[in-house]
Automatic annotation (TrEMBL):
Molecular function as annotated in GO: oxidoreductase activity, acting on the CH-OH group of donors, NAD or NADP as acceptor
Homology family: Belongs to the short-chain dehydrogenases/reductases (SDR) family.
UniProt xrefs under InterPro entries: NAD(P)-bd_dom_sf (IPR036291), Sc_DH/Rdtase_CS (IPR020904), SDR_fam (IPR002347)
SUPFAM superfamilies named among the record's database cross-references: NAD(P)-binding Rossmann-fold domains (SSF51735)
Protein name stated in the entry: Short-chain dehydrogenase
PROSITE patterns: ADH_SHORT
Species this chain originates from: Noviherbaspirillum denitrificans
Amino acid sequence: MDVLVNNAGIDPHYARLEKTSSASWHEIVRTNLDGVFYCCKYFTAAMLEEKKGSVINISSIAGKVGLRRQVPYCATKGGVEQITRALALDWADAGVRVNGIGYGFIKTDLTSAITGHEHLGPQLLARTPLARFGSVEEVTGAAIFLASDAASYMTGHTIMVDGGWTAS
């Protein structure tokens, strides 16, 4: 295996912390954080043995900035950011690069309820400097770059594909 992309994720749970159930917390942690941990632990043996490879952990703007009513989601994406940095240090001597992609609001079937919402959609666009939602192809382009030799001197970083959201 040359490339591992940890892309499993779960929708944010939109509630204040005091209204967040333990079950919701654990479901988001299991999917977003434990998933990255276990995939990195069990699917990289060949990379480490061959002393080459690229791990790409998918994060979010929520790994860089706080978002209202999304404490579990923000905590897990911040954790993904830290796993990325720590593994980059641990595995650099084995020739395995570990980077991330932090996405903003990407237009998909999964996000259509938010991006197409009559009030939330325009608010999100107003907060995004490029004033549009991203596409799956734009995230894919970042992944192709990180998996390629063009990124051979990069490790421990997260490329933000967010329309400028985290720039301000």
